Amino acid sequence: MARVVVDVMLKPEILDPQGQAVQRALPRLGFEGIADVRQGKRFELEVEGPVDEAALARIHEMAETFLANTVIEDFVVKVESDPAKAES
Amino acid sequence: MARVVVDVMLKPEILDPQGQAVQRALPRLGFEGIADVRQGKRFELEVEGPVDEAALARIHEMAETFLANTVIEDFVVKVESDPAKAES
Amino acid sequence: MTLDTVKHATETPDAEQPWAELGLKKDEYERIREILDRRPTGAELAMYSVMWSEHCSYKSSKVHLKQFGEKAPESDALLVGIGENAGVVDVGQGYAVTFKVESHNHPSYIEPYQGAATGVGGIVRDILAMGARPVAVVDPLRFGAADHPDTKRVLPGVVAGIGGYGNCLGLPNIGGEVVFDPCYQGNPLVNAGCIGVMKHEDIHLAKASGPGNKVILYGARTGGDGIGGVSVLASETFESTGPAKRPAVQVGDPFQEKLLIECTLEIFKENLVAGIQDLGGAGLSCATSELASAGSGGMRVELDTVPLRDATLSPEEILMSESQERMCAIVEPQHVDRFMAICEKWDVIATVIGEVTEGERLEIFWHGEQIVDVPPRTVAHEGPVYHRPYARPEWQDALQADDAAKLPRPKSADELRAQVLKVVGSPNQASKAWITDQYDRFVQGNTVLAQPEDAGMVRIDEESNLGVAMATDGNGRYAKLDPYTGAQLALAEAYRNVAASGARPLAISDCLNFGSPEDPGVMWQFAEATRGLADGCQELGTPVTGGNVSLYNQTGETAIHPTPVVAVLGVIDDVTRRTPIAFAEAGQLLYLLGDTKEEFGGSAWSDVVHGHLGGLPPAVDLDREKLLAEILISASRDGMIDAAHDLSDGGLVQAVVESCLRGGAGARLVVPDGLSAFTFLFSESAGRAVVAVPRSEELRFTDMCGARGLPATRIGVVDGEEVEVQGEFRIPLAELRTAHEEAIPGLLA
Amino acid sequence: MTARPSPATTPDQGPSGRGNIRVGVVTFPGTLDDRDTLRAVRIAGAEPVPLWHRDKDLKQVDAVVLPGGFSYGDYLRAGAISRFSPLMETVIDQARAGMPVLGICNGFQVLTETHLLPGAMLRNNHLHFICRDQKLRVETSETAWTSDYAAGQEISIPLKNIDGRYVADERTLDELEAEGRVVFRYLDMNPNGSLRDIAGITNEAGNVVGLMPHPEHAVEPLVGTGRTDGLGFFTSILKKLVNA
Ligand SMILES: Nc1ncnc2c1ncn2[C@@H]1O[C@H](COP(=O)(O)OP(=O)(O)O)[C@@H](O)[C@H]1O
Ligand SMILES: [Mg+2]
Questions:
Q1: How buried is C583 (Cβ within 10 angstroms: 0-12 exposed, 13-18 middle, 19+ buried)?
Q2: Which residues in chain D are closer than 8 Å to C254, comparing Cβ atoms?
């Protein structure tokens, strides 16, 4: 089964109170040098069948109409090449 | 400024009602063929200065102690090669 | 693009300006040129256009709203009347209460969660700006048909937004309404109200006086939120702009607002502000011009000192931005340091952005260059006034002639029983617990009554047990049949609800939700409703302390039902005397207070059973409402009743079922002489309540009613585990509970 | 139904040697129930002491309550940011040294984030905020905050949260059960999907207790749900400290 990831982030002009709260906390925790933090959502979809053009088009539509609220959010659809974790 | 992304997902054994709610809604919206959905968080950090080993180590520590609660969550730290959106 | 300074505007008198795109009419633009004796700069044009929008200037409604002042009843309680952020009433023991209801209808349709959330945020800041600690919120809501797919999008989002914001602020939600009707399909109504408490000496007003005093902007940074939102969202139907041009919606940060509340209250406590205003619609344009206009008139602002979230914003955009969670204070120079220290304590960003000046001009500068030079009164208080034509719609007669009395009534006891179950389980009459359980009603530890009681009630003094109560009501179906009477019925119902809880009604706020004022029929509805409300308030002795008008609630040519929502505030000297709705004690006697007539126009029964809307709404008798209220309040104070529930939509049977389910006890009812069982159960005659009287108090209670001339009919007794109408039917409580409580989750969960 | 004994009268000498028993209540930015908790402490007969998150000093209190609310807006994770406040450093040290600490709702979330209590709190399984009168069983009276209840006693107190689903791995759960550290369990219905119906737990020493429902909202018959089942938390600590 293939994994497709949809990343949903608030549009840059939209206030992100969560990201702000995280950023403001960092110096107190001793982490300097982070100029900005934005917090969004990550959806991992396990897709049955081949992840071809048609499937991606459907997922794109799903993201647009359902996973993201395009009034305030942008999204990106990515096919995860290697579902194994990159780090950690 | 370089962007580092931290993806935080619930550990596989932890129930993810948000992902489940999404998955259950999909067929009703006419989207078939998605076997599983997990919903997590994505943090985009704008890092001042070079993103070298040392910076990544610090961000890793930040993720481990703060951005993720490792009792319930796993995380992955990635340097975003091209901050331009891949699609959408 | 070069900066459009005042100098530049003077030198280029003929430059084209987008006044039409900003929603101004030709004559309005001409008037601005006249006032300034030159063309406005871009920044000035932005300010005038947004402040002269329907939403901010009340240009269509003003001539009618005037009556609230002109017909205002004598009231010792009124401390601050219409015109401030919210009205203030005296509730005794040195306490003052401020309250107001506002709409956030259009934003909530586009983005239900954020639209509703920021609606709560806005009204809370209004209350805070008066000097009060916010102590409770209410949320009168209206949605399209309960089974319409879009309602599944809008309602859960709105409810989550109201809860998400209000819960995070720590404000108990103590009341509101949820009404479904297809007329609200493309135009849900999201009204939000807030109550605040302070001591008399803490009342603050929105005015800037004292040259040399500093103008401090504090709270969130300014971003690109909702730029033009006020004029576009609230003044025009969004069809006309189309989804592509939807302006950015505002996103709320309740955490920031909570800090703003605590920080502001601490600032008040140390007496550090000379004037204060919240930032809501029209952002800085509104706050600076209103503060200056209400004060001595002069103010100078350095706009480039405003802390920004988005460095690319133009000065016009900064003036228009509706970024949430911001306040503007006028502070004497010697208090500035202390003011800043308190903001720092609460992690709130505060910046001196200007000062009060000698003159009578509002002057705004951008990097040293002047971009605004206006008389603030012309922006804030002397906007256009329209005398819009209005006319009774042609269809009104036919609608009123279509009498609900002609509808077929149940022919058997079985049919009557089935209709009772159908009505109490219909979306409008069903339990709203699925919704209200998403709101915190316990926080602050002072909630005496909350949903599903007749009125919400909070204690405001722990020693003396002084409390206040609030109920909000509005029945668009009644108002559609007759807007004058409909508005009075909304008032009467909220008034009755407050009295039923044991509190004495003091004053009201309102939120007037109507279609397009450019439609003479809608304008007639508006004129009739305001006239009805003003007359009603005069008779009941409850002044209008403030409110809000929301127009253009329509989809294409079709307007919503005229929907005046009325919030009545009451006071109770000792909250231990409050009257709940629950029938709990077997053996207590049930009395019906008031007269029951053949009144089914606009009723729940006509809607649920026949899908019918026609005829006349129930008649209003405000003297009777007053008498009923006096009896309910005396009975509560003197311990003569253990429960009371007002009768409104759904009639007696609805009230009895709710009281039985609340208390977990059944009732045995006897149809009084002269009434059919059907009329007894479903009539919606106004001026009525049902009460539970302990046997030991019966004589005292009926004597009191008799002496004061209020009809009181013994209709049964609290008993058993079913609702029985003798000679007609019985329905077990469990069956009623299922019908009543599972309807909404079944539709929405 | 109420806790067995009635509220204790104010003792004249507390262990701090300063007269009254002093119970501190912490305010973080976004804390909501601090004033209610101070009131509950007072009604129980102890001296309520407000504590501020930026201070390191506990003002010689004998016990600390971390009250409910949305500290830091519940951003990131409920309790995640508050945990790093200066005051919490002192609270963590003192808790390890045996000082009684009670975390209510958001306070419980802070306690799990600090790892003073095991497990974590997640979004309710139905994804909604829920506010209701919740029935609980007090599983043990062997903690600093439940000694005034009988083991097995059923109480009803308000519950109100959106991130109230308690989770921990199986081993931890088994351990909690085996050591009698599940202090409260939901009865009648599990309002949020908490594993094993757990509503509250304690640490090994029994001095640190966390729970999701709100005892401080159930201390007066007049307001809230009209019950006083929550008063026992505050009388428990008072007696424990008086007898200490
Ligand atoms: N329907 C109404 N009834 C009474 N007063 C109203 C009504 N609509 C608006 N007002 C009053 O007009 C003034 C301006 O209203 P509004 O613009 O909503 O205030 P704000 O600027 O605080 O949002 C307020 O004092 C408000 O109470
Ligand atoms: Mg205002």
A1: buried
A2: 70, 73
Enumerate the β-bridge partners of residue C571.
C468, C504
For the stretch C555-609, pLDDT in tens is 989 999 999 999 999 999 999 999 999 999 999 999 999 999 999 999 999 999 9
CA-nearest residue, atom 2 of ligand 1 = C547
B33 exposure class (CB count in 10 Å sphere: 0-12, 13-18, 19+) = middle
pLDDT, tens digit, 9 for 90 and up, residues C720-730: 999 999 999 99
Question: Which token pair is C681?
Answer: 């159960």
Local confidence band at C419 (pLDDT 50, 70, 90 cut-offs): very high
**Which two three-digit tokens encode residue D224?**
């809230």
Cβ burial, residue D9 (10 Å; 0-12/13-18/19+) = exposed
Residue that the structure tokens 């969202």 belong to: C233
pTM: 0.93
Instruction: With respect to residue C293, please indicate whether it lies within any of the assigned structural domains.
Output: yes
Q: How far, in Å, is the centroid of ligand 1 from the Cα of C78?
A: 16
CB contact under 8 A, A87 and B60: yes
Contact D75 A29 (CB under 8 A): no
Decide if D131 is catalytic.
no
What's the domain count of chain C?
Answer: 1
- Scan residues 74-133 of D and list those with Cβ closer than 8 Å to A: 75-76, 81, 84
Contacts 24+ apart (CB under 8 A), C452-455: C452/C581, C452/C658, C452/C662, C453/C501, C453/C580, C453/C581, C454/C497, C454/C498, C454/C500, C454/C501, C454/C581, C454/C644, C454/C645, C454/C646, C455/C175, C455/C497, C455/C498, C455/C500, C455/C501, C455/C503, C455/C570
CB hemisphere CA count around D16 (13 angstroms): 18
Count of beta carbons in the 10 Å neighbourhood of residue D97: 9
CATH number of domain containing C346: 3.90.650.10
Cis previous bond, C452, omega within 30? yes
- Between the CA of C230 and the centroid of ligand 2 the distance, in Å, is 13
Give the CATH superfamily of D22-243.
Answer: Class I glutamine amidotransferase (GATase) domain (3.40.50.880)
Sort strands C369-374 and C554-555 into parallel, antiparallel or unpaired. Answer: unpaired
Rounded to an integer, what distance in angstroms lies between the CA atom of residue C524 and that of residue C526?
Answer: 5
C253 touches chain A (CB under 8 A): yes
Residues of C in contact with A15 (CB under 8 A): 220, 223, 225, 251, 253, 309, 323-324
C364: which strand partners?
C301, C372
Q: Cβ < 6 Å from ligand 1: which residues?
A: C 56, 65, 68, 82-85, 100, 126, 280, 510, 512, 544, 546-549
Range of the domain at C214: 6-61+202-380
For residue range C614-667, what is the model confidence (pLDDT) as tens digits? 999 999 999 999 999 999 999 999 999 999 999 999 999 999 999 999 999 999
Domain that holds residue B54: 2-87
CB contact set of C82 (below 8 Å; sequence gap of 6+): C65, C68, C69, C544, C545, C546
Chosen from B8, B44, B66 to mutate, greatest number of chain A CBs within 10 A:
B44
Residue C219, in any domain of the structure: yes
Q: Does D167 touch chain B (CB under 8 A)?
A: yes
What is the tally of structural domains in chain A? 1
Is residue D73's pLDDT more than 70?
yes
Which residues are CB-neighbours of C502 under 8 A, at least 6 positions away?
A: C469, C572, C577, C578, C579, C632, C633, C636, C637, C644
User: What residues does each domain of chain D span?
Assistant: 22-243
Q: Is residue C55 part of a domain?
A: yes
- CATH code at A34? 3.30.1280.10
Chain B neighbors of A48, CB-CB under 8 A? 33-35
Note whether residue C419 is domain-resident.
no
Chains D and B, touching by 3 or more CB pairs within 8 angstroms: yes
